[in-house]
Amino acid sequence: SNGKSRNEVKASAFSFDQIGGQERAKEELVEALDFLVKRDKIEKLGIRPLKGILLAGPPGTGKTLLAKAAAHYTDSIYLAASGSEFVEMYVGVGAGRIRDLFKEARTKAKKAGKSSAVIFIDEIEVIGGKRDGGQHREYDQTLNQLLTEMDGIHSGESPRILIIAATNRKEMLDSALLRPGRFDRHIGVDLPDKKGRLHILNIHAANKPIDESVSMERLAEQTYSFSGAQLESVMNEAAIYAMREDRDTVGERHLNMAIDKVMLGEKTDKETSK
Ligand code: ATP
């Protein structure tokens, strides 16, 4: 029932090596996070503090995992929210929730004795989408509140807050969000290539008895254009097929059926949403 505290527990144990592929994204993220880790030096050099990182890419590619690993890497408290949580019928409610989120991050970080907090906001385009004309923006209190909170972050303060936002519609974002001092670090999180798929498949096969005859290489080839989330599903569905057949190991057949199922599932999802 309490999703937030569950997320915090997970984040504390989650590291970059549990994320398959995404080597470039991981590298760029770590480089950005070092601004937080080495902040004494950053301050001495008079460099503007890093406040916001934007992760952009298709669904299920590991953006949430990257945010959790970022919290772990920087020894921060982790709080997660989704843009859609702030959409409310009544004016001001969304803005109030943004304020509460930042307050909660500061309180929890202090309580846990941490000097920083990572706030992850998924689906940022829901609150930070382009406004037509631009002059309506001042009435959008939720977005304004987020910008106000970000503008209020100072390099010297403790706990320091870092906002990581995710979107799969980067082109839809309002330019106010992307200005220097706001979400000015952009990291692309794309679908995995074959090597990345192999890595992800191996991560999700680690807790499963896979038949010796199975070629993970071939599996990685067969799953072209699959996301990390889909690859996780393939491994899980295959184990379910093995269980149904009362087998002790997951075989090639189960994996092939699982690939078909995940592909078909995607198709029906798209068709029904049309
Ligand atoms: P969305 O845009 O839909 O929120 P996302 O990019 O945040 O998606 P995650 O929530 O991080 O995706 O991934 C969903 C699940 O898919 C993860 O919990 C994990 O099981 C699996 N997964 C996705 N990407 C990877 C990856 N690179 N390595 C290992 N597992 C992955």
Automatic annotation (TrEMBL):
Q: Name one GO biological process term.
A: protein catabolic process
- Domain AAA+ ATPase: from-to ranges: 49-193
A GO molecular-function descriptor: ATP binding
Superkingdom of origin organism: Bacteria
Cofactor(s) required for function per UniProt: Zn(2+)
Q: Which UniProt keywords apply?
A: ATP-binding, Coiled coil, Hydrolase, Membrane, Metal-binding, Metalloprotease, Nucleotide-binding, Protease, Transmembrane, Transmembrane helix, Zinc
A GO cellular component annotation in the UniProt record: plasma membrane
Q: Which family does it belong to?
A: In the C-terminal section; belongs to the peptidase M41 family.
Output this protein's name. Answer: AAA family ATPase
The taxonomic lineage of its organism, from the top, reads: Bacteria, Bacillati, Bacillota, Bacilli, Bacillales
Residue range from the parent sequence: 54 to 327 of 497
